[in-house]
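Here is an idea for our session: we take a single protein and study its fold together. Once you have written the record down, we can walk along the chain together.
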Amino acid sequence: MTIDPVDLKIDARSGERIFLASGKPEFSWRLNARQSAYRILVEDDQGAALWDSGVVQGTSCRWIPWGGAELASRMAGTARVQVFDQSGNSSGFSAPVHFETGLLENRDWGNARWIWYDRNNYSTTAPSPYFRKTFYVRPGLRKARLYITARGCFNAYIDGVKISPDYLAPGWTDFQKQIPYMTYDVTEALSEGTHTLGAILADGWCCGNLTIFRYRNTYHPHPELLARLEMTFDQGERECIVTDSSWKSSTGSILSADLYDGENIDARLEMPGWCKNDFDDTGWITAADGGPVRESPRLVQKTAPPVRCQEILKPVQLLHPKKDTCIWDFGQNFVGTYRVHLRGNPGRLYTFQTGEMLDKDGTLYTLNYRSARSQDSYICSGPLEEWFEYSPSLTFHGFRYLQIDGFQFDQIPPESLEVVGLVLHSDMPVAGEFRCGNPLVSRLWLNALWGQRGNFLVIPTDCPQRDERMGWTGDAQIFAPTAMYNADCCTFYRKYLRDIRDAMREDGAAPSIAPAILRMADGAAAWGDAIILIPHALYQHYGWQSILAENYDAMKRSIAWQKAHSDDYIRNGKQFGDWLAPVETPPPLVATAYFVHCARCLSEIAGVLGHEDDQKEFSRLFEDARRAFQNAFLDRDGIVSPSTQTALALGLVFDIIEPDKFSANAAALERRVRENGARLNTGFIGTALLLPALVKCGLEKTACDLVLQEEYPSWLFSVKQGATTIWERWDSYSHAKGFADASMNSFNHYAYGTVASFLTSHIGGIQYSHEEITMQIIPDERFSPVQAAYDSPHGKITSQWEKTQDGRLCWSVMVPGGIPATAILPDGTRRKLSPGTNILL
């Protein structure tokens, strides 16, 4: 077999041109066979070598560090990799990957200044500011880069054409500490002659309504724009257009745009051609000066995946629950916006109300949105005969149903409209697949996937629809191992970890919410522990050592705070415990178990990074905290007490139980599950650990019984009630009782979706780590037939099995090259796998 390197990535990113935030990138690639050595060649855009690694002996094809001189701002290059097989035969060089560093220092923005529109009242939602600048491009343009960001969010245009498909850029961070900027290659949009650069701003997360308390202008008093257009010509000379007092500003047809409340348009105020050269802007005013780029906040090249439209959904039905009411059902609870073609007389008002569920009379149910209106509106400019397209772009909603009001039913039959849903989330293509012979279980896996898609929008939110949508760190860390089987999450989580670091208190307490729009129980176990456990999960899955180093100081500060705020290693104080569990587990038990677990994880991390003294210190801390847990929370028989499902799972999964007491605790866990009728009694924390605990104890059938349970509380209960995502509560809705308390009742809340990783790794049998692939199934015929797949960092892995009518088990797998792979058959036999398809049974 000829060895070939493919899918070369730089800093975990791929694409036609990668814009880097660092002068020391890392390289990764895929292989169809095991390599013995590699060579990385990087050249500048003139073909001169920037770095040649030479032939390096080694099997690793992930996270190879840059070995040349540190790259400066604006440096462009091309990277290729060559590999050698086990016999020393070399491949050709891979396809080239083009990259370019961004503006790495704030001073690189030169004389660009923040600008804003000063005629609005920004104490409440206000019309969106528009900005424009006309300029001339002389002959000989070779390349053009637009660096652009906002305090708020923006849509940018050249000559009236939107520059990119991104939504809600630059996203959400603590804007007082760091602001991401976007880099766009706009060379093809410019030619010799006059052009117009324009932008529309909205409040976004920086200035818009946030939290149930409706905080406004949290990070800045008003939206602002910052841009630098750099044009490089044939002889290397550079000309720049920057935001400054030469720009003009105004307002237009966007009366307001808010993430919670929606977007409101008055088309009668539209300014046709506002971003074109021949537009008369004499009525516009000079853009107000917001000041220069200072040392803080730091401007950073955005490397996390942008928010983009990932899928277009067509309605499955049009509902008329009562006269003159029209509701489009997309058949799937999702996050994003929509596109509709309408027409109407001048002044006709259309309203667009979203909802996740229908009430018992068939009308929209929106009580669970709390104060978030989640409603858009459009006032027509006419005439009636002309169709127009409307698609909100400066807000987003979590919904399944769309109600449109304002029809002239005698003029426009609703059935004639073109209405589609636009699915938005951070641009991480789906990597996992799972389906089986039980359609409820297949739907459950999809529900978890749709929960991740909807809530992985800029940050991992808890929910995407009500007046919350915050980055709860506990939800993020318990779901992280599952998320990695569903998508490539590297750059997404890297950005979020930076948000957590920015939100840490000076004393080392890690936040429960990041960005820290609210301060609630900082340092709480399982929530604040995300700063340790997410990097640990990223390393275990991806082998990403530099993510450990990047967060190591923050981890040490966090564990020191935990130790300082414990009572002889018992963690009391404000805790969330096993959130929303039907049966409570004492919060100090949960918190102390996590303290033990974090100490062990940090000891492992210190070892990986070569910090031997720290490794020893954290190993001692693990033993001391473990002993304290045993003394406080084990009964005289050595069983965790109180022996709830969650408490026992914590003790077993986190290796707190002594080996000679493991069997007794395993038996206690099985009793608790069986006594409860093979139903769940766990909340956010225990649910993520219960199935792994049962598998670790050899209780695979009990684990499968839990997954297949259809009665409340269980995973399939919501599926039986019609769920298309994971719900916040086990009983958020039932056909018999209706809706749970609307004050906290999200129908898109991914935390309980951790079951998806069990389906992939144990029912599908795909168990991936950066060191090896293990294929091992639980051949429970109630799931048969099963098909699972994971597009891993090393390549695609598949597994298919079924129990035939005569009781035989048939199983085949496919694994990539470049990483060891082993199958463990149901009888315990281990079989080494070759790259490609392997028929096992």
User: Anything to note?
Assistant: The two ends are 25 Å apart (CA to CA). The longest helix spans residues 587-609. The domain at 307-426 is CATH 2.60.120.260 (Jelly Rolls).
